[in-house]
Design goal:
This protein is of the alpha/beta class. The chain has two domains: 140 residues, 3 Solenoid (UDP N-Acetylglucosamine Acyltransferase, domain 1), CATH 2.160.10; 53 residues, Udp N-acetylglucosamine O-acyltransferase, Domain 2, CATH 1.20.1180.10. Helix content is 17%, strand content 26%. It contains four helices and 27 strands. A hairpin with a 4-residue loop joins strand 26 and strand 27.
Length: 266
Amino acid sequence: MNQKAPALHEERIHETAIVHPDARLSPGVIVGPYCLVGEGVTLGPGCVLQSHVRIDGPLTAGRNNQFYHGAAIGGDPQDLKYNGDISSVCIGDDNIFREYVTVSRATKQGCETSIGNSNLLMAYVHIAHDCMIRNHVILANCVNLGGHVEVEDYAIVGGMTPVHQFVRIGSYSILGGASRASKDMPPYMKAAGNPLRVVGTNAVGLERHRFSAETRRILKEAFRILYRSDLNVSQAAARIREEFPDSPEVAHLLEFIAASDRGIVR
């Protein structure tokens, strides 16, 4: 059961919790049984640490973040190149970290692992060093992100899916569970399988997020050109740009493809 945050002028720390004297807890923070809050941690108003949560700094979290039992946030990166440099984790507002989620700090001095706003990270999700999770992302149970992964707004990754380091997951895309992402996943698309294969646009997601019927039609046609024609990626991108020059969604899709170092999922 969720613990309800107290009024903002209150603060509640369980007698078994250990909070470093240099940690900064805003009004309304709850620290539950056997939690550990380390040096250099800043928690915004309304954050709740349920039980056995460990948060290490340097780390800054905004408002109303929920950390469920056993979450371990801000620990050293699992990277053999790490030599003890001071790096950080930056977390926005209204995120949910379910049971045993782990988030690692960045590897190099002055760098950060960042998590935006209103994300749902289900049980046993791992976010490695230097990842960037934007806003309204859903990572289902046991998703594992390698280092330097970027996940754009409103993307969904199904459970038991590993994502290779440096891969990007585009906005409003969805990856089926038990897949393996080793290349960049274009925005607005749907993919599944192992090896991962794009099978269409994320039609249901686009409709739920109130993309117009015309925008959905354009993206479906862009999918057809990119994945169902005999054109290579460069040729398909040129054709899409020529046919839909005024669509902001197409512009984002093409910018994403052009910026891909690993290549896109085919």
